[in-house]
Please model this.
Amino acid sequence: MAQTTAVFINHSSSDAITDFVLKHGNGVKGLSEIGLKNLPKQYIQPLEEIISEAKIMPQASIPIIDMSELDDPSVEEVVRRAAEKWGFFQIINHGVPIEVLENVKEATHRFFRLPAEEKRKYLKEFSPSNNVRFGTSFSPEAEKALEWKDYLSLFYVSEDEASVLWPSVCRDQVLDYMRRSEIVIRRLLDVLMKNLKVTEIDETKESLLMGSKRINLNYYPICPNPELTVGIGRHSDVSTLTVLLQDDVGGLYVRGDDDYWIHVPPVNGSLVINVGDALQIMSNGRYKSVEHCVMTDGSKNRISIPIFINPRPSDKISPFREVLASGEKAVYKEVLYSDYVKHFFRKAHDGKKTIDFAKIRRI
Ligand code: OGA
Ligand code: NI
Model:
């Protein structure tokens, strides 16, 4: 059966491939597993989107911060500097048990191992809720070139809703990972807020900083031509903070100075933290939401599991009053968070352009 499909796909029109991947729930994982020899042309990205050896800064790296030392004020300072300068860092000794991380990785593999007919139930057309979505690439309708990635995206509303709607093969492990990472997220937000003169996180601020959560299970299958495509194109996240668990394959790159990129090496047991656009806006640009992307691998399947800590969709976000108290001019205007997110998904990944939506234009 796989062999016939392979012959069929290798000689197929791009419409047939699109149907196979997008409509039938096979994803790019399905394409990869039938042993496709050449990357279909709709996945070929412009050359400038590919990070070749020449564009990598080998000597540079983002900070790795030991959270067990966070009571030391100098370590707090390291966190703030990392969020200001790099927008990215890794944390170790963060308090989320290693089994919880291992279990959610295993659960991710279990979900993607389900037959296409099962995963297909969560495609946009069939999913019983907008809060559970299986898909491929990023915004296929808006993209000139597709991305080599499948995903399951889960918007968290409550444990009760999750227990009804989320796929049972991964639900408990994902919820556990979300619950257990909560403490370290709060701790990081506290440290980052203190530096903005936000000393009290009241209910309104709590909603703005961490009022909603989305968790994605990302699957980047082995790619026949990794030098021609991307796993995720250049983008910044629209979150307040993102917590990302990656496996040991590697392939995540962060923009460094100028036109160079920095690899985020897998560190066993660590979590990658990055600033998203919402925090850049609320901090009036103090904390940076830095562009990043994922390259594909020619010999290994890769998974990653980001938790996007977001404002609530109904929140209006703008620079915090405390940040502007000293007379600093607002760089961003007030925007409804759900409008901001809609703007992000309406277009293909395009680097740092999403944030222009909230920029104040001065004449
Ligand atoms: C994302 C992202 C990086 C990765 O999902 O927004 O940047 O390593 N993921 O998968
Ligand atoms: Ni991202």
